[in-house]
Amino acid sequence: HLAALLYYLNNDDYFSPENIAANSQEEETDSNLKNISAINNAKKQLLNIYPITNTPKSNLRSEADVFNKYFSPFIESSAKIEKTNLAKNNSAQFGLAYGIAAKGYHSNIFPLRLRLRKDGTVADKSKIYNIGYNTIPNIDLKEKLILDFLLNRNNALYLGAHNNTKDDFRKREMFNEILTFLSDKEVYFESKYDNYKTINVLENEADAFITIDEDVDDLTLQLSINIGEEQVSNHKNILVVLDNPLWIYVNDKIFKVNNLSYEQLELFINEEFRIVISKEYLALFEKELLPKIVSKLPIVSSKYKIEEINEPPTKKILLEESASNLLIKVKFGYGELDLDYIEDAPSSSIFNENVIWKIIRDNNFEKQAVEEIQSLYVKKISEGVFTPRNAPIDFLLNHFSTFEEMGFEILGQENLTKLKFNTSKPKISFNVTSGIDWFDVETELDYNGTAVPFSELVEAIKQKKKYLKLSDGSSSILPANWIKKFQQTLSLGELSKDRIRFSQVQALALESILNDADDFEVDDKFTEHIDKLKSFEKIVKQSIPKSFKGELRDYQKHGLDWLYFLKEYSFGGILADDMGLGKTIQSIVLLLKEKEQNKNHTTLIVAPTSVVFNWIDELDKFAPTITVLNHTGIDRNKEDNSAFENYDVVITSYGIL
């Protein structure tokens, strides 16, 4: 009820934690409110209960409508309370400004509350420690965020004492944003005893440069800081507001200085902006210091010749190792000189062979090159320096060719040790040798002279690795299309330690694999087998051996033709038919044809024990010229199998085999 009453008497934004906190610290209270003790009591109670009460605005509006019905005649006629009076911060009485302090080695930015006279002039100023945004007219989101930052954090900035932590970097970044924002705001500089002086924060930036001249036998370096037509570097009362980037306060103005660091400014301030290099140190200065100075600051000199380079740049990448990570540094070649990337740098200077070279930079070209690198899933470390977000070796092997396609020259590859990689396209070769009814295939993978053992290749593919570790310590990629083809090869063959074995049935599939290889060697038997398969037209009808004691029906002749075809092409096969239709007879005729063609070798027949004697009887009946050894029973020769060679057929059982 108390909350709804306050909601009714004031505007929507009044009932907010920010406004409650701000109003609770007000020292003055409107005279009208002092006379309404009920509201004062309600306000105190509301402050006490707020942390544990979160009444939705919809409920407040609903109950406020009820209050309106009953209380509006009394409130409007007697109290005449205006909604903005509670806030005590309307534009006629109070204003918002900003204060800046720079004392010793720290600086700060803070909001100020201006109490205004009736004529609009400032009566006094005080720091704001908390604020209700509904009390400030015409404030946008950006300024709310800035005020949040200034009020809710410890924002004292210690100059030169930063450790490049994320929080430290963010604080300096925010100070830079805020100082830029204040260029059109009312700003005061805090001096001793909390006195405030009106100052201007300039939108324009100052330029710094060094003049190097000879002074008798010595060399003088003079720092100049110019803002427009005004030179400010001869002022002793320069104060630093922000060290990185550099903002300074001088002559009631605060502005940003290009090309100059806090440390450099401190050095010149201590030397009254003029440093003298004695003659005896001139050689050391030119060797060690001058190249660094020239790379950081523009130079004007009567001592050294200054040449300008204005040529189209080339883009380069320097690869470096950092611990176990990879650094990708973007560089740009201008003539004979390589420069690091500096965002929006109109020019850079280098001291080389007693000449200061001023390079006119192509910012659009450089920015586009950096954006190309950023598109490759990398993380920014600093300006123009990146590191991969995934495994460095994966990044190198997958994107090396991409760098080249983008037109980057790649530097530093030869200096990599932990991340050494080989970008050569692998060459695969096969060597095929023939066995009794198989082909053995030996495989070799070569990366520009570095061979990969077959076992390592197979293991890498089994583990689905994308790259191989070569014998020279480098890593190289396994092309995805090649892995897929080799996986098919492995699925067809029988894998051993150093080779893959294929059956003769797979000869044509093997030949297809060989044709995709960079190189292969095969023996004569494999070639003959392939030629024979490719010349096949139909199954040839076979004649019946004269020594066969019987007759074959037509379907049995077809079975003989089929069996002879399988034997001729070294295929395995099955003769399938119903029982009693003469499968044994057809097999015996095949054996007779072998004997008739003087192919003196022994054939092994393995049969169930119950039909061993049936085979012997059939052979004796239809092919008496075939010699048979019955290798069954307890009387068989278990010690010496050399006698097998004296027979055309050896019959045994499954159990004995």
Helix content: 25-40%
Large-scale geometry: elongated
Class computed from helices, strands and strand pairing: alpha/beta
What is the count of DSSP helices, taking H or I runs of 4+ residues? 19
Q: Unreliable stretches, pLDDT < 50, 5 or more residues?
A: 24-36, 49-53, 74-92
Strand elements, count: 35
Biggest sheet details: 14 strands, mixed
Radius of gyration: 47 Å
- Cα(first) to Cα(last) distance is 101 Å
Give the mean pLDDT. Answer: 81
Number of domains: 6
Q: Percent of residues in beta strands?
A: 25-35%
Structure write-up:
With 657 residues, this protein is of the alpha/beta class. The chain has 6 domains: 2-87, no CATH class; 94-201, no CATH class; 206-301, no CATH class; 316-334 and 352-414, no CATH class; 427-534, no CATH class; 581-653, no CATH class. 34% of the residues lie in helices and 29% in strands. The protein contains 19 helices and 35 strands. The strands form 6 sheets. Strands 1, 2, 3, 4, 5, 6, 7, 8, 9, 10, 11, 12, 13 and 14 form a 14-stranded mixed sheet that branches. Strands 16, 17, 18, 21, 22 and 23 form a 6-stranded mixed sheet that branches. Helix 1 crosses helix 4 and helix 17 (554-568) crosses helix 18. The relative contact order is 0.04.
Features:
alpha/beta, 6-stranded mixed sheet, 14-stranded mixed sheet, 6 domains, 19 helices
In short:
By secondary structure, the chain is an alpha/beta fold. The protein contains 19 helices and 35 strands. It folds into 6 domains: 86 residues, no CATH class; 108 residues, no CATH class; 96 residues, no CATH class; 82 residues, no CATH class; 108 residues, no CATH class; 73 residues, no CATH class.
